[in-house]
Amino acid sequence: MRGCERGRADRGFVTAESAVVLPVLVMFATALVWGLLVVAAQIQCVDAARTGARAAARQDPADAVVEVAREAAPRGAQVTVSRERQREGEQVRVVVVARPPMLGRLPFDVREEAVASVEGAGP
């Protein structure tokens, strides 16, 4: 008889444990999805910066470099192209800054830059 009484009393504990664990699992899943979105945006920024640096190294016009980089970058990304003189020759630097999607309330951006030597430019 005692076994039956014990089973009924445990039902309340299972409900209380579920009420605590369920929100934790939802928060963990949400954090995981946000993390994946940030990683995906970072990878897109890496690709965009490399693509832009490659185009700038070929001495494509600056507008074309920015357009190529924006096509590979996340939506709304800012692309900056600069040229620098070095002893070894001229280099281009492409910086891509973007806000990860669905994270508009969080105060951080992902940023990536790529540097390439300009083709055909000598010391």
Describe the structure.
With 123 residues, the protein is α+β, with helices and mostly antiparallel strands. It has one domain. Helix content is 54%, strand content 22%. The chain is built from 2 helices and 3 strands; from the N terminus they run ααβββ. It has helices at residues 2-57, 62-72, and strands at residues 78-86, 89-98, 110-117. A 3-stranded antiparallel β-sheet has the order 1-2-3, with helices on one face. Strand 1 and strand 2 form a beta hairpin. Helix 1 (2-57) runs antiparallel to helix 2 (62-72). The protein is rod-shaped.
> Which structural class do you get from the secondary structure elements?
alpha+beta
Mean pLDDT: 83
Could you give the count of β-strands? 3
Number of helical segments? 2
The profile of the biggest β sheet is:
3 strands, antiparallel
Structurally, how many domains make up the residues? 1
Helix and strand run = HHEEE
The strand line-up of the biggest sheet is 1-2-3
Q: What is the approximate shape? A: rod-shaped
Q: What's the alpha carbon Rg, rounded to whole Å?
A: 26 Å
Q: What share of the residues lie within helices?
A: 40-55%
Task: Outline the secondary-structure elements.
Blueprint: H1 2-57, H2 62-72, E1 78-86, E2 89-98, E3 110-117
Antiparallel strand pairs: 1-2, 2-3
Helix pairs in contact: 1-2
Give the gist of this structure:
The protein has 123 residues and is an alpha+beta fold. It has helices at 2-57, 62-72; strands spanning 78-86, 89-98, 110-117.
